[in-house]
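Design job #97: recover the sequence.
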């Protein structure tokens, strides 16, 4: 009969396991190549093509339409890689061999290197599902109020050295998530600056930012608008304030890395 002789001598269990392994290998290949759409080909510390590119090739380019009129985004794309590349960093080698740490040659917090490094994201605000900026000042929305915890409005702000640097004038909220993201500080002699709320300790009578001394607050990157913050500005602000835990000793303190 048709099929009896074939299946009578054929190991269906062996076929099943081989089909599974073939499928699994193709899945790994697909996932790995899709993971290589940005940041490839690999480069060494000097920006030259790395000698070991791995066993998987860079995938074919795909173009995606971004929401809310954001245009097109093609990956992989050398133009995108070049646009998101930071050059002329204030760093020098600590060894002739690749992979060793780089040493800052200037003020690492102002130069944005090491723990203070930031990625060149789009200089546009992050949008919600309806196309509006997500992070906005709470004072611009009458329907929002602080539901729990201490209200920092009007409290004085101190740095790690215990010196008063200014006053809290507003909170910036993530409207869709209904969370406070930044505190707005009117820094004495420098204008308004944002500090990530996770890096601020809000007490009953004061707010303490332990990562920065007084002389460092004026260096916090300012926003172009008092109504919204861009993704690039968020990147720079968060990197600067957080890096103060290592570099925030003030300009008068020498910085030495070994």
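Job complete. Output follows.
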């Amino acid at each position: 009969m048709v099929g009896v002789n074939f299946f009578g001598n054929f190991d269906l269990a062996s076929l099943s396991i081989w089909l599974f392994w073939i499928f699994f290998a193709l899945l790994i290949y697909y996932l790995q190549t899709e993971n290589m759409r940005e940041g490839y080909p690999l480069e060494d510390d000097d920006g030259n093509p790395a000698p070991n590119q791995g066993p998987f090739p860079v995938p074919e380019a795909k173009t995606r339409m971004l929401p809310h009129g954001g245009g097109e985004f093609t990956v992989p794309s050398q133009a995108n890689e070049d646009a998101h590349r930071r050059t002329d960093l204030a760093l020098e080698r600590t060894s002739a061999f690749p992979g060793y740490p780089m040493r800052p040659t200037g003020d690492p917090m102002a130069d944005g290197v090491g723990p203070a490094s930031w990625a060149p994201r789009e200089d546009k605000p992050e949008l919600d599902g309806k196309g509006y900026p997500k992070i906005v000042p709470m004072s611009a929305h009458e329907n929002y109020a602080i539901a729990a915890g201490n209200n920092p409005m009007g409290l004085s702000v101190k740095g790690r050295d215990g010196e008063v640097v200014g006053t809290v004038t507003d909170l910036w909220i993530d409207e869709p998530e209904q969370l406070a993201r930044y505190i707005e500080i009117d820094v004495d002699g420098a204008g308004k600056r944002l500090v990530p709320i996770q890096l601020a300790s809000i007490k009953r009578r004061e707010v303490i930012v332990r990562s920065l001394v007084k002389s460092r607050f004026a260096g916090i990157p300012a926003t172009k608008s008092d109504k919204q913050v861009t993704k690039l500005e968020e990147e720079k602000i968060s990197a600067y304030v957080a890096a103060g835990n290592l570099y925030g000793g003030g300009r008068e303190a020498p910085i030495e890395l070994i």
